[in-house]
């Protein structure tokens, strides 16, 4: 018996594959703790049987099934005896074909001035992170082009505007322009070993260096949470703004159901790692990256 069969036996409905919260390797159900019918906020990982709600964070599978079905602890425990863990298809299945946007080339002077002004060495970023620039070229004009690399291969990309007043700070590849969806990955994960420092943006990763990863945006996906979970020590270092800290607390709750240690920190010298002092970044590296 697997978790699909158990949910059917308990009359717990699951989200259709077309639902916005549906993800490969997960079954989505209505969370019994923040119940909102038809929203299917709580995911059950098919392979590892971890539970995570988009609103509540991590939950225990037995508690979820008890609350959702009204069954007792012994009844649920009996159902779970000998449960088969379903091997899910990898979430890194290729979806489209990588397409590099027009106009990508070497960094121009304007890109170098922007990066230097933020405290980065443009040449170092080119050598280590393979960034490039886009000049006068359509909708992506005047941006830093940032490849998203997975196991040594470029699979997607994002861009960062160098314009001071452009509201679209980041523009990322469309689904059919990437071979693996960016939001199923962690930017910078190829350089991670035992511990990770989880940030929001690519510039935060550049500042901290190897060992840091980014969710590439203010939100994160269940696939990204599962990737974080495999590391024994996870340090969440989001922006200092109240909304970002609230998201960091939710992420910490989601990760605490997994083995290992999850720590939430907030930098003092800048609103995020990308703007923080080098001295504070070095202290963070020495303390958490082992």
CATH architecture of the largest domain: 3-Layer(aba) Sandwich
Question: Per DSSP, what share of the residues sits in E-state strands of 2 or more residues?
Answer: 15-25%
Kindly give the count of domains: 3
Rounded to an integer in angstroms, the radius of gyration calculated over CA atoms is 21 Å
Helix content: 25-40%
The CATH C-level name of the largest domain is: Alpha Beta
Number of E-type strands: 13
Mean pLDDT: 89
CATH topological fold name of the largest domain: Dna Topoisomerase Vi A Subunit, Chain: A, domain 2
Note the overall shape: elongated
Quote the distance from N terminus to C terminus.
41 Å
Count of runs of 4 or more consecutive helical residues: 9
Order of helices and strands: HEEEEHHEHHEEEEEHEHEHEH
Largest sheet entry: 5 strands, antiparallel
Order of strands side by side in the largest beta sheet? 5-6-7-8-9
Contiguous runs where pLDDT drops below 50 for at least 5 residues: none
Classification by helices and strands: alpha+beta
Walkthrough of the structure:
By secondary structure, the protein is an alpha+beta fold. Helix content is 28%, strand content 19%. It contains nine helices and 13 strands. The protein has helices spanning 3-9, 61-69, 73-80, 109-117, 122-129, 202-208, 222-229, 242-255, 278-288; strands at 26-29, 42-45, 51-53, 57-59, 104-105, 132-134, 143-150, 153-161, 170-172, 195-199, 212-214, 233-236, 261-264. Strand 10, helix 6 (202-208) and strand 11 (212-214) form a beta-alpha-beta unit.
Keywords, separated by commas or semicolons:
28% helix, alpha+beta, 3 domains, Dna Topoisomerase Vi A Subunit, Chain: A, domain 2, 19% strand, 290 residues, DNA primase DNAg catalytic core, N-terminal domain
């Amino acid at each position: 018996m697997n978790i699909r069969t158990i949910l059917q036996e308990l009359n717990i409905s699951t989200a259709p594959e077309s639902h916005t919260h549906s993800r490969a390797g997960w079954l989505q159900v209505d969370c019994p703790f923040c119940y909102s019918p038809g929203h299917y906020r709580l995911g059950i990982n098919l392979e590892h049987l971890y539970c995570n709600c988009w609103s509540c964070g991590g939950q225990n599978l037995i508690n979820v099934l008890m609350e959702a079905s009204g069954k007792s602890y012994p009844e649920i425990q009996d159902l779970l005896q000998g449960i088969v863990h379903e091997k899910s298809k990898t979430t890194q299945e290729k979806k489209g074909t990588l397409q590099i946007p027009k106009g990508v080339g070497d960094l121009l002077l304007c890109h170098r001035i922007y990066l230097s002004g933020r405290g980065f060495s443009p040449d170092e970023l080119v050598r280590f992170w393979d960034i490039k620039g886009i000049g006068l070229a359509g909708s992506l004009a005047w941006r830093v082009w940032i490849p998203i690399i997975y196991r040594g291969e470029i699979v997607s990309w994002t861009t960062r505007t160098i314009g001071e007043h452009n509201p679209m700070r980041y523009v990322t590849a469309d689904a059919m322009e990437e071979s693996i969806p960016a939001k199923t990955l962690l930017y910078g994960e190829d350089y991670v070993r035992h511990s990770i420092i989880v940030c929001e943006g690519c510039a935060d990763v550049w500042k901290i260096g190897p060992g840091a990863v980014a969710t590439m945006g203010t939100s994160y996906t269940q696939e990204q949470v599962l990737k974080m979970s495999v590391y024994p020590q996870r340090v969440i270092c989001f922006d200092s703004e109240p909304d970002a800290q609230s998201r960091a607390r939710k992420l910490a709750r989601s990760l605490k159901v997994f083995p290992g240690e999850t720590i939430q920190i907030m930098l003092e010298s800048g609103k995020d790692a990308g703007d923080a002092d080098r001295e504070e970044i070095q202290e963070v590296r020495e303390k958490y990256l082992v």
